[in-house]
Design a protein that fits this description.
Blueprint: H1 2-9, H2 17-39, H3 41-62, H4 67-80, H5 82-96, E1 101-105, E2 112-116, E3 121-125, E4 132-136
Helix pairs in contact: 2-3
The structure holds zinc ion (ZN).
């Protein structure tokens, strides 16, 4: 059984970052569709149709043998969302370190500096513009 699956998938593209994001969108749209079904049937039909289209695309891309084209699509997606993904990663790090570190925005250049929490009033030197400012952490 497993060998058959491996043989079947040989030369096919599989799932990438774009596929995972589309799967997430499809699942969210399915849930929204169920909620809409309670009070707005047309909205429910629209959401489930878009969700179905996403699922079709995911399956089409995963079983596609045109690997170059799928790689280019994924590349385009990654390039277009690079800034947003960077910001999300930064906020995730900020949240995970919230107990030990404070993130202070520089009043001059608006960049963030990571400083240890619970040290009282400290002098912070911005890494980017070298401006010094004081802040209580
Ligand atoms: Zn600065």
């Amino acid at each position: 059984m497993r060998d058959k699956l491996i043989k079947f998938m040989y030369g096919r593209y599989g799932v990438d970052e774009l596929g995972k994001v589309m799967l997430g969108c499809a699942l969210v749209l399915s849930v929204v569709s169920m909620i809409f079904n309670l009070f707005w049937p047309l909205g429910s039909v629209i959401c489930s149709s878009v969700s179905f289209a996403f699922m079709f695309l995911i399956i089409f891309r995963a079983f596609s043998k045109n690997i170059n084209r799928r790689v280019m699509e994924n590349h385009k997606y990654l390039a277009r969302t690079e800034k947003l993904r960077g910001k999300l990663k930064f906020y995730r790090t900020m949240f995970n370190e919230r107990k030990n570190y404070a993130y202070i925005k520089c009043p001059n250049c608006k960049n963030y500096s990571r400083v240890p929490k619970g040290k009282g009033k400290i002098k912070i030197t911005c890494r980017v513009c070298k401006k010094q400012f004081e802040k209580k952490v």
